[in-house]
Amino acid sequence: MNKKDLISKMSKDAGITLDQAKKALSALIQGVSMALQRGERVTLSGFGSFEIKIRQERMGRNPKTGQIIRISAKKKVKFNPSQRLENSL
């Protein structure tokens, strides 16, 4: 399912127009993104939670040359599914 399919499903299930569903989905994505940028955890009951995790700097190896390189620390978005979602799969 892609974004277009999700908007169509939201429109049908909620009984709203495609434009309204598109705006609602965009608002949700923007809200989650902004909360994560502020370092907040976002929890959607029955679905799961999103949070930022920091991967520490580490040493790695270039697979082509075998040379040891430094891999910089970076932030990653982590999703933890709810127990209900996991049980439904």
Short key terms for the protein model shown above:
single chain, 89 residues, alpha+beta, two-stranded antiparallel sheet, 3 helices, 5 strands, 43% helix
Task: Sketch the topology as an H/E string, one letter per element.
Answer: HHEEEEEH
Termini gap = 16 Å
SS field, number of helical segments: 3
- Report the structural category: alpha+beta
Strand order of the largest sheet: 1-2-5
The radius of gyration is 19 Å
Q: Percent range for helical residues?
A: 40-55%
Describe what you observe in this structure.
The protein folds into two domains: 1-40; 50-89, no CATH class. The protein has three helices and five strands. The protein starts with a helix and ends with a helix. The strands form two sheets. A three-stranded antiparallel sheet has the order 1-2-5. Helices cover 43% and strands 30% of the residues. The model has no long low-confidence stretch (mean pLDDT 95). By secondary structure, the protein is α+β, with helices and mostly antiparallel strands.
In short:
This protein has 89 residues and is of the alpha+beta class. Helix content is 43%, strand content 30%.
Secondary-structure blueprint:
Elements: H1 3-14, H2 18-37, E1 42-44, E2 48-55, E3 58-61, E4 68-71, E5 74-81, H3 83-88
Antiparallel strand pairs: 1-2, 2-5, 3-4
Helix pairs in contact: 1-2
